Amino acid sequence: MATALIFPGQGAQFVGMGGPLTDRSPLARTHFDIASDILGFDLLKLCVEGPVEELSRTEFSQPALFVHSFAALKQLEADRPAVWDDVTRTAGLSLGEYTAVAATGGFSFEDGVRLVQARGQAMQAASNAVASGMSSVIGMEQDKLAEICQQASTAEHRVQLANLLCPGNIAISGHIEALEVAERLCVEAGAMKTVRLQVAGAFHTAIMQPAVAKLEAALAAVEFSATRVPVVSNVDAAPHTAAVEIKSLLPRQVVMPVRWEESLRNIIEAGVEQFIEVGTGRILAGTLKRIQRKLPCENYGD
Length: 302
What we know:
13 helices
């Protein structure tokens, strides 16, 4: 049965993650140990014990999620040696795309740890420079939400669509001043609710542009290979295997909207019959249900 592996992104982290997985899997614990040596701190301890304020910081949550998902994947491969026989697509939500690339051999696990650490630090620094944020808007059509973002924006303060997750669930991102106006206009226009996301800043907008150069420098130091299975990019919602294409798309990802709904639809149209969400939580399974309820999505992780 044609299968897609999908990997969660920032926001799926929680204190306690990784504990059950590493308790039952020495293989998973080994990956946390390797990552801790690279990062310079005890990653598993942070994941299991917190505090939540530290784990939620971009420079820590991104390595935590990458390592947890990759470690879970290695145990999945041990449990089901033939799992890759059926995999025809991989994808990840924002940060999760790095796990998808590493999972398919695009770069090594060790290089992946270094990359997501650099990505998290660069995005945190860009966020610290500007008062900005993100908000999830529930129960509003994309076209109407785009109009509201335009109404709420000024020459100095802008807000825009950022995470196109699934019907009725889209995240907007921008300067705090414009974001607050957009949140009010959404409620007035009939949205069910808006939820301010616990992230450092306006991810997937031009506010993250200062992070791009730092990320490009980190990517330049890493050897990329063609992936054995196509990775569906957040940037264009298209499958890619060529190393040069994937390497060029990853820095663009931090300043462009995440086309997740379109990615899932394209994966389904390519013939995928089931999904496995590898890592913590079931956020991605929830988005799939809003797009195609009949397709099964297993969670493999904690």
